[in-house]
Amino acid sequence: MERINNIVYYAVVCLILFGMFLFYRNVTCAVMFGVMLIYPLVSLIACCIAYIGIGAEVKSERECMDKGEENRFFVIIKNYSFIPILSARISIEMNNLFYREDSTRIINTSIGVLKETLVIPIVSDVYGKIDTQVTRIEISDWLNFFKIKKDMNEEEHIYVLPAKNDEMKSNGDNISGNAAGQENEKIGDGFDVVNIREYEEGDKLRSIHWKTSARLNEIYVKENNDEENDVTIVLFELFKEKKELNSIIERTYDVCRALVKENISFILCCNNGEHDISSYMIYSNEDIDDAMRIFTENRLSEYKKSAYENYMNSARGGNIIYIGVDETLQEVRK
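Predicted structure:
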């Protein structure tokens, strides 16, 4: 409809100029009428040149944000043609991979010479990974007679994960066991460290006692009384309901950070859909974030205990800290 209106207005202006030329019979009216006749062609050529020279770049203010925290997404439209674009439509798709939820934003703007920066605020009430992508730029000629679409593939990943707190919540501290650095300590329930000795070739990396090693400037390892069950497993559910999943991820972070605080290395596991298990070895808080970023690609389950049942049916041994929809529990699997 807008295009039809523009064509009607253009035709009316041309008729008025032609009438003025017939009435006044002067060069000025003739030139104005001639320019108006060729103006659509000039406008189309300029639009095609702008189409060739237009591009986009995207970036976010922060790669990682907390739930409910505002982040800013920048779309930088570059115009190397040096021809101003009076009307443009930018299509931006946002997809939370955890929930497979898509949304599209259409932004109408003008683009000057060189570049134009658009700022889009982003707030998420759920954890996960948000893929933000500029998919298309549609530009119009100066008369809005013609529209040319250019497909784009510029994307940015924004992770929504719990922010680190200096003081761990009580449920995480209770699970982590006694303070590291003592000669006899516990890792969860049933794992007594009977000795701390110097590192020998062949010792497992997860047995290193980091605090003692740092204090004495030598590598020391822990000897457990049960080699088969000396592995700590943090197992959590990727359940499809948003409220429950938010709670599970927050509790998982609390437990993981508490274990890292005590220099306890462990394996972080979760389900990938209904039947698969994903795992990641954790030594530091950075490893927790890296693992969670990978797990955001996993499929959510419709069953509340997919991770627990799959792991129990396939795994042997380990000190399991399970974080489910309605519970956080710990058990030693023989």
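Summary: The first helix runs from residue 2 to 24.
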